[in-house]
Amino acid sequence: MTSASKGSTRPHDCPCGAAAPDQKSGARPPRYADCCGRFIDGGAAAPRALELMRSRYSAYVLGESAYLRDTWAQETCPADLDVDRTAPDAPRWLGLAIKRHTPIDETHAEVEFVARYKVGGRAHRLHETSRFLRGADGRWRYVDGDVREE
Ligand SMILES: [Zn+2]
Predict the structure, then answer these.
(1) Does the first or last residue of the chain, that is N or C, have fewer Cβ atoms within 10 Å of its Cβ?
(2) Percent helix, strand and coil across the chain, each rounded to 5?
(3) Are 127 and 98 in contact (CB under 8 A)?
(4) Residue 79 bridge partners (DSSP)
(5) For 42, what's the count of Cα atoms within 13 Å in the CB-facing half-sphere?
(6) What kind and span of H or E run contains 95?
(7) Positions of the region Disordered (predicted)?
(8) What is the pTM assigned to this prediction?
């Protein structure tokens, strides 16, 4: 992907806030370019499911549908996946908290997270335990998850 293709602007601070299970409260957010920008714009492979999860959250914030497709297992990726941030019912993402990162083996991992967002002025919490699979190419991808809408 070329960075000029969409003309989209990138934030200074990373939307994911470097969320992690052991994150201290009040930690300063990392720069986007040093955090999820390496994966979304730089094409680097996320080293663990944790970093992939964070970068996918940031991709939702930024409306990067192509990155979401690239990091979604082919078997489970919705054919009509498209994140349109300008749609009237588009969620406005407010923050990410990661509760748990559980590496299961070399190619399987789980991440439990809470993402806060607003739709039409109403606040929601998406609480999900996501499953990730590492492909033969060494890249982690999202498979599916158990969602608790709160
Ligand atoms: Zn980030």
Answers:
(1) C
(2) 20, 35, 45
(3) no
(4) none
(5) 12
(6) strand 92-105
(7) 1-30
(8) 0.91
Q: Which residues pair with 144 in a beta bridge?
A: 131
**What is the residue type of 139?**
R
Locate all alpha helices (DSSP H) within the chain, ordered by sequence.
37-40, 49-62, 65-70
Per-residue pLDDT of the chain (150 residues; tens, 9 = 90+): 444 444 468 999 999 999 999 888 777 889 999 999 999 999 999 999 999 999 999 999 999 999 999 999 999 999 988 888 888 889 999 999 999 999 999 999 999 999 999 998 899 999 999 999 999 999 999 999 999 866
CA pair distance 84, 98, nearest whole angstrom:
25
Distance, in Å, from the CA atom of 25 to the CA atom of 108, rounded to the nearest integer, reads 29
CA of 35 to the centre of ligand 1 (A): 4
Query: How far, in Å, is the centroid of ligand 1 from the Cα of 109?
Result: 19
Dist. CA 17 → ligand 1 center (Å):
6
